[in-house]
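Ticket #4471: structure output looks truncated?

Reporter: J.K.
Steps to reproduce: submitted the chain below (343 residues) through the standard prediction queue, then opened the result file.
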Amino acid sequence: MFIDKFLGMFSNDLAIDLGTANTLVYVHGKGIICDEPSVVVIRRDNKRPVAVGLEAKEMLGKTPSNIVAIRPMKDGVIADFDATEEMLKYFITKAHNRKSFVSPRVIIGVPSGITQVEQRAVKDAAHASGAREVYLIEEPMAAAVGVGLPVGEPTGNMIVDIGGGTTDVAVISLDGIVYSKAVRVGGDKMDEAIMAYIKRKYNLMIGERTSEQIKIQLGSAYKTNKSEPTEIKGRDLISGIPKAITVSEDEIREALQESIEVILDTIKVTLENTPPELAADIVDKGIVLAGGGAMLKGLDILIREHTGVPVIVPDDPLTAVVRGCGKMLDKLELLRKVAITTN
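Returned output as attached by the reporter:
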């Protein structure tokens, strides 16, 4: 314990939200110092990284044949181990600024449905990237701590964490997850749904980045009438020539309907499986949304209409997981209680 504290004095311990869409890094004593896309661009011949993060995302869909842009995380878990290791190395080096000579303790937020094999892959990638100790925390627990829910009290706290690859719904009480359900539907599936809708309706092929921009500008779960129709550009599938069309909020809401229904069903199943005493607490306190998907316009209204339970969207839902992991750098007792133990 003394050695641990002694080493902690010389290393900048880190908390990482290793997300499918974005990776956020929190440094002990400094706060969030890094929020970049989870993208790595590597050369095909020697597998060397060309760019990571923001710079790499700019290259998505625009690379020549000898360079490939990879999103190493898929559905909240590692899809490409080597690229994830390179990405973690980049973020850990950036956070440390090469000044510290002691390897950091790292806390990483992972989806609640993660398998033993996937847990091991995340830990191995972090150790290979220079971490001294690695703790894994389930994202809904980290998000609940991040938004300030009283997770240690004997009351029901319900959190819905909508990330890029997964949606995690959990009921938390006494520093533990009473019931949780994760589905592999999140921001990425919404982007894919928009791409498929535009292709089906307009015979127009658009890229990932365009689809994401449309989701941010026009995406909604409930009729808001706040967004003006937007012009989007892509390639006409019939003529093969670039073309521009105008799409409305109603059309994008129709495209997102299936993904939103999956999230709603997951929330309903979780509520059905919540013990009655905790369910009573949730009716009083409400459901808290976290993750990038919480910013989808009208989602809180739709959930409230379908469940009859109040819905709260915190000030900064996107950083809830990494802030929760960051808080645990100071609360080692809580960390050891809630960390996932790998065999």
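Triage note (M.O.): checked the attachment and the full token line is present. Confidence is low (pLDDT under 50) at residues 1-10.
Status: closed, working as intended.
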